[in-house]
Amino acid sequence: MTEQENTEDAPYQVLARKYRPTDFSGLIGQETLVQTLSNAIKQSRLAHAFVLTGVRGIGKTTTARIIARALNCDGEGRDGPTVDPCGVCEQCQAINQDRHMDVLEMDAASRTGVDDIRELIEGVRYKPTSARYKVYIIDEVHMLSRNAFNALLKTLEEPPEHVKFIFATTEIGKIPVTVLSRCQRFDLRRIDMDQLSAHFKSIITQEGAALSDEAVHLISRAADGSVRDGLSLLDQAIAHNADGEITADHIRDMLGLADRSQTFELIEAVMKGEIAEALEMMGALYVAGADPAVLLEDMLEITHWVTRIKIVPGVADEPGVPEIERVQGKIMAEGLSMAALSRAWQMLMKGLGEVRMAPRPEQAAEMVLVRLAYAADLPTPADAIKAIKEGSLGNSGGSAPAPAAPSSPAPQTSAIATSPPSNDQPGAALATAAPETVMEVAPQVEPEPDARPNPQSFLDVVALADAEKEAILHANLINNVHLVSFEKGRIEIRPTDHAPPELSGQLREFLTNTTGERWAVTVSNQPGEPTLQQNVNEAVAKTKAEAREHPLVKEILETFPGATIDEVRETKPKK
Asked: Are residues 137 and 201 in the same domain?
């Protein structure tokens, strides 16, 4: 059998496995992790436990296997860990093929119990059979039960010299801090689109496929920073059209995406209030295969992009920005106000959740567009105040014209806005007098600037809490807070063990809401001053001690054994 026939008979291997890195040089976008581990290996400063965290498909398990190879490679006469595992020695090949007896990989999602961890711990005390180190790789470690974590703690803190632990997780917050404190943590970051695109183009060349630059850009954007997700999409794209070049249209059909230019036109129509045209465009995109939820996600992304251009215009001219996004983004940024963009973002975010939950997503998406189009005519708060002062609230325009719906009668609000009521109509006098009434009442509602409390010391803060009837906060400030420092707008405290964990946040929110100014409340490890209750207790104890030394009191205490001083009161001399 020839080598070519052997290759053809071999089972197909997906791109995510075929191009999995085997050494540190193959890891893309993780320069900090690579540099730290490389220096640790060179300086023989290897930790006994590592925890790798990041989104799915970012390379956590791959990195764990590379570390295992770097620790155990014995090619070229090496007698210790190496930054560049050879990949051809028996140790490297056995680890690559997942058959090494001393590199044990465990899926915590399927083996979550304490018995599984006890079985693992039993093998820790035995030295490796052939490798330099016995390496335990536990994937999705956050799935372990609490008892399993507790069983692992002691071994994790003081493992034998020949044992290394490598944990991988997508949810670092679910791992107990007692475990995290015993590990060296590495956060694997998302890969940016430029790096992903360059990586995918290299693989496309090796595979002999043909993809347009725009198609690669769409795959990189859909991957959302995950190499594995992107390679899976690339695998699907190559199979989608194996006869010729894969274009952006093929990728859009495959992913249910709308053409970017059409999405820009849809947003433009909605923000102009041209709802009939917008609904027609939405229907055409849906018939063409666009997913309503994905379409709203694209609209959110464009809204965010236009907002960035409005804040920092230079981002539109950065290299790698597609021409359609550069040109259309600048045009929309000039024509839309920040208030309109913020409102659109909020409504699209809320609408996206509705679309995902609706029994008919396309109908829910249309209702989102309708709401957004009619909200485009709402004035901003500044415009509304100005209109009230001028007595022309109905005629004040928002950030875009009113929605145009020629096939249906105009809403009642538009009729009121465009034609002021005549004196013969009911309520006409009330309608014309309303602006003046508001102008007379409004100044009385606004609080005086000096009416806000202005605490100048921690005692003022405590008194303010008492005055505002914040009984629980007042009690905590007296009994459970050591003051470290106080200055205007900033308090540093050390809560006692009995203080609620959210005390600093409650105090910050209380001061900000009550004073109308921004306050920062930070927690410190410094001892700080005694609590106010401790000061009171010390003062009472001092007063009792002084009273106990009084000759008359001392004689009474000696005459009546067991008598105590419960309270000391000052008496005013009789006039």
From this structure: no
Phi, then psi, of 211 in degrees rounded to 5: -130, 140
pLDDT in tens, 85-95: 888 888 888 99
| Residue 345 maps to a domain | yes
pLDDT confidence of residue 380: 63
Domain harbouring 104, CATH code: 3.40.50.300
* Six-digit token string for 538: 């010390």
In a domain, 5, yes or no: no
Q: Phi first, then psi: what are they for 473, rounded to 5°?
A: -65, -40
Q: What percent of the chain has a predicted confidence (pLDDT) above 70?
A: 83
Same structural domain, 59 and 169: yes
Residue located via tokens 């035995």 = 126
Q: What is the pTM of this model?
A: 0.56
- Whether residues 135 and 176 fall in one domain: yes
**pLDDT of res. 209:** 85
- Report angle CA 56, 62, 67 to the nearest 5 degrees: 135
Is the per-residue pLDDT at 256 higher than 50?
A: yes
The answer on pLDDT for 550 being more than 60 is yes
Angle at 540 between CA 534 and CA 541, to 5 degrees: 85
Percentage of the residues of the chain whose pLDDT score is greater than 90: 14
Residue-range definition of the domain harbouring residue 517? 458-529
Does 53 share its domain with 137? yes
Total count of domains within the chain: 4
Q: Which helix (H) or strand (E) holds 484?
A: strand 481-487
Looking at residue 173, the DSSP 8-state letter turns out to be G
Q: Answer whether residue 250 is part of any domain.
A: yes
In sequence order, which residues have a C-beta less than 8 Å from that of residue 271 and are 6 or more positions away? 332, 335, 336, 340, 344, 372, 373, 376, 399, 400
User: Is the domain of 249 the same as that of 283?
Assistant: no
Residues 330, 335, 337, CA angle at the centre, nearest 5°? 105
- Asked if residue 31 belongs to a domain, the reply is yes
CA distance 509 to 404: 44
CA dist 127 and 37 (Å) reads 24
**Contact status, residue 87 vs residue 23, Cβ threshold 8 Å:** yes
Q: How far apart are CA 103 and CA 123, in angstroms?
A: 12
User: Quick one: 123 and 158 in the same domain?
Assistant: yes
pLDDT in tens, 168-180: 998 888 899 999 9
Digit-coded pLDDT (tens) for 403-462:
544 444 444 333 333 334 343 433 333 233 333 333 333 344 444 445 678 888 889 899
Final residue of a structural domain among 255, 278, 307: 255
Query: What distance in Å separates the CA atoms of residue 456 and residue 260, rounded to the nearest whole number?
Result: 56
Higher-pLDDT residue of 319 and 112 is 112
Which residues are registered as beta bridge partners of 107? Answer: 139
